[in-house]
Amino acid sequence: MTEEADIYELLEAVKDPEIPVLSVVDLGIVRKVDWISPKKLKITITPTYSGCPAMDTIEREISEILQSKGFEVEVVTSISEAWTTDWISEKGRKNLEEYGIAPPAEATTDKSFITGNSKNVHCPRCKSEETSLISQFGSTACKALYKCDSCHETFDYFKCI
Ligand SMILES: [Zn+2]
How far does residue 152's CA lie from ligand 1's centre (Å)? Predict the structure, then answer.
């Protein structure tokens, strides 16, 4: 008998194509696992933001990994509750930082990153709070590009939404 926890464990293998250290489970986009029949699953996901090009890939990979275990899969998208960066797990935040991306600051209401004056953005390398915004768009639209004023490294910041 496969438990819900087993399904989540399988889904740990599905990574955000833009951030390979972050699984869809860590990202918090897998909202629900339902059994339609013993061999048929319905997976409810909430996209990180509308129009994120990675979502198609993610949906396909969720189906593929579960199909490889003998399940029939239906992936449904739910936007009744909007995804926020608060849904990223503790482990996900730690992985992001180790990967060199500053994890989103706790409060999603804080939009001060727009002005570049946010003290919430820590350098993932030296942990300095003396950072400045270079560009609102980093390597992808979900990230902003920052520069650390202490160690002079540039890094991506996962924007709060
Ligand atoms: Zn630094």
Answer: 6
16 and 67 assigned to the same domain:
yes
CA of 20 to the centre of ligand 1 (A): 22
Residue 62 CA to residue 69 CA, distance in Å, equals 11
* The two three-digit tokens of residue 31, written as one number: 């909202």
Tens-place pLDDT, residues 8-59? 999 999 998 888 899 999 999 999 999 999 999 999 999 886 556 778 889 9
Cα of 129 from ligand 1 centre, angstroms: 8
For the chain, what percent of residues have pLDDT higher than 70?
86
CB atoms within 10 A of CB 14: 23
Q: For residue 40, what are its two tokens?
A: 């048929």
Range of 121's domain? Answer: 88-158
Indicate whether 75 and 16 sit together in one domain. Answer: yes
- pTM of structure: 0.79
Tens digits of per-residue pLDDT, 130-145?
Answer: 999 999 877 777 788 9
